[in-house]
Structures are given as structure tokens and as C-alpha cells.
Amino acid sequence: MAKKTKPQKKSGGMREKAKKKAERNMNRGSNFKLDLPEGVELYQPNSTGPYHWDIIPYVVQSSTHPEVEKGEMWYQRTYYVHHNLGEDGNKSVVCPRSVNKPCPICEHVRGLFNSEDEDDRELAKTMKAKERELFNIIDLDNQDDGVRIMEYSYHLFGKILDEEINEADEEVADFAELEGGKTLKVKFRKKKLGQNPFYEAKSIDFEDREDYDDDILEEVYDLDNLLIIRSYDELTKLVAGAEDIEDEESEEKEPEDEEEEEEEEEKPKKKGKSSSAKKKSSSGKKSSKKKDDDDDDDDGDEEEKENKSKKAGRKPTGKKKKGKGKNKCPAGGEFGVDTNEFDECKDCDLWTACEDANQQNEDDDEE
């Protein structure tokens, strides 16, 4: 009788693969919101700083960008996320309205807000779309990491950036220009939601920076192309309680494309692209960026953008200030105030924006 031979073991292989798999899945976060390039992890602040960031623009290739036309350069990508989905309430997905498509989750949330059941209305608040942003940034304190992708809540960073731009001199709005841009010196305050810490920007200072060569655009990421947009039918099943939404193969990927005082758990840092930022010095050589070591002082959720205007041929500046004045209630009420007061509210295209404005007013009153 022939002896059975034991399979030869290869040491170390499983450990390495297991680590890579864990990193990959953590990077995707079990929520499958963003399609990141292989080996690339999201960058997020994990201390109060100060941080010294250069935000680098990218050439928009999408016709659904909310701020600029295809072919223009821009410095960020706004998108919206629905949380607390699925049977276990642990799924998050990109809202299709981020690319101007209808969203069954928003429709479901609208119905919950119109419910007479208080629990339904509370559930609606957790499921409604939250505003987030993507940036290409260079952390000047870790410049060898090159261009990184930062994803963050608008209300924890972008809102403060907009406020600083609106209050500062006009030239500050050129902060993301390759020539004449500014380095952002950002300080955060640490907060907690339950046991989970998160960081909210409290102050942003703008410092002169050296100009970037055009070839830096070869190192940035197409932020529109990172968004994973699932089909209407798939999201309908998910909101109905179906737990298993299919993996990447079935995901509808757009080729062109919080207020939450809560932030997702921090993700471990990992290098993205290996090449470092290229800058022009006065001698024409690439030079390393100096960081400002000064420590400044202190100080430092959500109206969704339903009527997004496209602006052709403008330089990167801050986003439009959000306010009640840009929308009018079709039923004759006051936008952002008379939410759910009319029969027309149930089918109103502006309902989500109106509800968010209403919630923003309540939050402002509490402050």
C-alpha cells in the first residue's frame, strides 16, 4: 500500500496574504463605497495637528461633477453616503444622486420622515444621505508619501475651509492653483462619539507655497472615478432588508465618476503612490517643501446641494455658500421651515434639501 505523502508547507505565505486581504477589506470598509487603486489607502488626520497640506487639483473627466464642467480643474469631489443599511444596519453606500441618478433610499427616507411613527422619523435621520468630500493632498510633513486621497465629512473639514475662504482675502481662493497656490495649516479638535474619537477642523491658515509643475497632475487621482454607484434595483433590495448586495463584479461603476458630528473609525495609514511631489524652485530644480513650525491659536451640518450650478472657466475657489434663499417651496411655504406641512411635500423634488435645511436650522438653534 502506497504511503500518503504530506503536502509540503510553505512558511510565511498565508501570513502575508492574510494581511493583504485584511488591509484590502479594511480599505474598502465592508461598505464598498469607493473603488481605490490597489495598494492605496485613504488618508485621514489622526491627531490635533497642526497639519501642513497642499491640496492638488485634478482634471475633471466626469459630466456629473457638481461644481465644474468636464475638462476643468477642480480641487475636490462632493458626494453623499447612506449609512445604517442592510439587515444588520452596517452597510453604507454612495447615494446615486451624487451622479444625478434617482435614489430609492432617498425615496424610502422621505416616506419615513412623513410617517406618524416617531421611530420611523428617527430612523430616517440615521439613513438620510450625509455629505462627504474627496481631495488629492500632499502632507508636507510626510512628503515622501506623495499624493494621497483624503476622504472626510464636509462638516468636519470642508465647511470650515469654505468659511475661511469666504472671510479671507480673495487670493486665498487660489489655494489649489498650481501657480500661486497656498499651503493649508490645519488644526483639529478631538471629539468623541461613544467610544470612537474623531477630529473636527477648528482653524485653517493659508501660507504661500512654491509652484507645482504641471506634471504633478500625472500623480493625482481621478476623484470622480472612485465612486461606486450601485444600481437602482440593487439599492431597492438593500433598503428592503436584503443583506447580501453583490460584490464588485455587479457594482455599477460610474466611469466618470456630516453634518454628522460622527466620523468613521480611523483607517491605518499606508503609502499610496511612491513618487513624491515635484516642485519648481527658483533654480528650476525640484525642491522639498518647508513646513511652517509655528503654532497658532484656535478656532474653528448639512444642507444638501439639490440645485447644483455648473460654472465654466473659473479658478478653484470655495464652494457656494449654502442658504435658504437658493430654493423656493413649490407649495408656497417657506423652504427649510415648512417641511412636511403640505400634501405636495410627499412628491416634491426638493424635499430632501428642504428637510436638510430644516435640520440645519434646528442644529443652529441648539448651538
Describe the structure.
This protein is an alpha+beta fold and 367 residues long. It has 2 domains: 30-302, Replication Fork Single-Stranded DNA Binding Protein, CATH 3.90.198.10; 320-367, no CATH class. The chain is 20% helix and 17% strand. The protein contains 6 helices and 9 strands. The chain has helices spanning 13-28, 104-113, 118-127, 154-167, 232-239, 351-366; strands at 51-55, 58-59, 73-74, 76-85, 91-94, 130-139, 148-153, 182-193, 196-208. Strands 1, 4, 5, 6, 7, 8 and 9 form a 7-stranded antiparallel beta sheet that branches. Strands 2-3 form a two-stranded antiparallel sheet. A hairpin with an 8-residue loop joins strand 6 (130-139) and strand 7 (148-153). Helix 2 runs antiparallel to helix 3. Residues 1-12, 24-31 and 246-326 have low confidence and may be disordered.
CA-atom Rg in angstroms: 22 Å
The separation of the N and C termini measures 82 Å
What is the mean predicted local confidence, pLDDT? 73
Main sheet specs: 7 strands, antiparallel
Tell me, briefly, the overall form: globular
Strand content: 15-25%
Domain module tally: 2
| Structure class | alpha+beta
CATH topology of the largest domain: Replication Fork Single-Stranded DNA Binding Protein
Q: State the helical fraction.
A: 10-25%
